[in-house]
Every structure is written in C-alpha cells, then in structure tokens.
Amino acid sequence: GGTLGSAAARTGRYFGTAVSASKLSDSVYTGILSREFSMITAENEMKIDATEPSQNQFSYANADRIVNQATSQGARLRGHTLAWHQQQPGWMQGMEGTALRQAMLNHVTQVATHYRGKIYAWDVVNEAFEDGGSGARRNSNLQRTGNDWIEAAFTAARAADPGAKLCYNDYNTDDWTHAKTQAVYRMVQDFKARGVPIDCVGFQSHFNPNSPVPSNYQTTLQNFANLGVDVQITELDIEGSGTAQANNFRTVTSACLAVSRCTGITVWGIRDTDSWRASGTPLLFDGNGQKKAAYTATLEAL
Ligand code: XIL
C-alpha cells in the first residue's frame, strides 16, 4: 500500500514527476501530485527560454509557481536545465563564440543564484552528446564555444549554489554498450579525476519499442555510480500498456533500488494525457487519473 513517495522514502529515495505550471489549477492533477510525489521537475518553466526570454532579463513567475507547489506539499525540486542546445531563447540561438560563452555562464550564475538553497539537484548540462556510434559531442552553438564549455558551466553552478547536487543529464545513455553511454562515462571519469565539480548523472530513460529498456540497465547505473557520483532516473516514460508495460516499469524501478547510489526516480508527467509524447500511454496514471498496472508494479518494486 502507500504512495510512490512514501514507498521510495523507505529506502531513502524519492519518487518524482515533471510538473507543468499550467496544470496547477487542475484539481485531479494536483490531487495526485501532492499525494504521490516527493520530487518535482519543472517540465519547461526553468529552461533557458523561460527564465531568460530577453538577454539579462530574468523571468521566474511560472517557475516560482512550481516552486511554491513543491513547498506546499513538502516535495523537493530538481532544477532543469541550465545549459542545453534546445529551448534556447531567440537571442541566444544566434549567438556564437565568446559572447555566447559569457551569456551561458551569466545564465547559469543568475538562475542558480536565484534558486540557491532550494534545489536538490540541477541538470547543469543537458544532452551534450551526439547519437549514433561516434561518441562525439553534439555539434551545437554551445559546443562551438570550446570543448570546456561543460566544465565551465559546472564550475559556475557550484559557485552560485554550493549546496545543490550538480548533474549531467542525457538520453540514450541507458545501454552500457552504446557509444554515447561510453562517451558520457569517460567525461564523468575525467571530471572526477580533474576535480571538476560533478555530483550526479541523470538518465532520462524515455523508452519505447525502438529504444527498449536494455538488459544491462542496472549495470549502466552501477558503473556510473562506481565513478563516485549519484545516479537518478530523471524523465522516465515507457510506451506500452498492460502487463508488458508494468513489467518494464518494474524492471527499471528494481534496477534503481539495486544500486545504492541511485537516489530516486522521476516520471515525465502524471497522467498519460500529460505526456509530451503526443500519442501513446507511457505514464503511471490514465487520462482520468486512475492508477494503471504500471503504477502497481512500480509501487511493488519500491
Ligand atoms: C520536453 C517537454 O516535455 C515538452 O513539453 C517540451 O515541448 C519539449 O521538452 N528531454 C528533456 C526534456 O530533457 O526537457 C524534454 O521535455 C523531453 C526530452
């Protein structure tokens, strides 16, 4: 019995969800949110385009609504995200070079300072590696400012909010044999060796038939944890339905529980109708807010 949050707390973990500020007036949504979840990630409201729509003009109203919801229900917050090639405001999209590097660092400093002391973990950098077999950094305006942009962002975030855990977050890094997984692993290993401030790695874990839960998922989480970082499942959703979907949620939850440094799981939305996936039913509650088999399997595995 119990709830996702209370079950996760029995082993010192959290269970979180992405939250959209525009849904906080929906009482079915907030009812499930406050009952079940002990960690909140703003689905879009802390992204660069939301918090700095004009250069050096910061906008926190929608994000702060989510912060207030977290406070009122006693949940913690994951900050998402300070530096990313997507959802950049127009003024940033066209920038390059030294001007962009300075603008990015200013953004990291200003936003992390605004939320100092309120964030459990920041996704400092999101999705910086390429898909496919190259293991290379993704070509982006941020990457073109120099290969050290990621460590510069982490160093700025540490200075601004020394109490927050600082994470690197990505997708398609769940399969240990994948070149992208290996490339992120080597970056984290290098950061730890050189004292770049990194505390955690987030695995988005958006799974579907083309990208299923890999059989070595727990191995991946454990191998990263063995580098001396915490790991979290940060944006979990799994396409499917019924028993097959429930079993996949059970597998993912059990993998986190088996890794002592896997400190929590966040699903990317509450009801299937809240999902960023336009079609499909990848979450734990149906469109009416009823618990699915995937919910029961997750709760049992916690
Ligand atoms: C998605 C949101 O869910 C959508 O509402 C938005 O339109 C696009 O971004 N990886 C991430 C998340 O790190 O920020 C993305 O969220 C999903 C993929």
Automatic annotation (TrEMBL):
<feature type="domain" description="GH10">
    <location>
        <begin position="1"/>
        <end position="301"/>
    </location>
</feature>
<protein>
    <recommendedName>
        <fullName>Beta-xylanase</fullName>
    </recommendedName>
</protein>
<comment type="similarity">
    <text>Belongs to the glycosyl hydrolase 10 (cellulase F) family.</text>
</comment>
<feature type="active site" description="Nucleophile">
    <location>
        <position position="235"/>
    </location>
</feature>
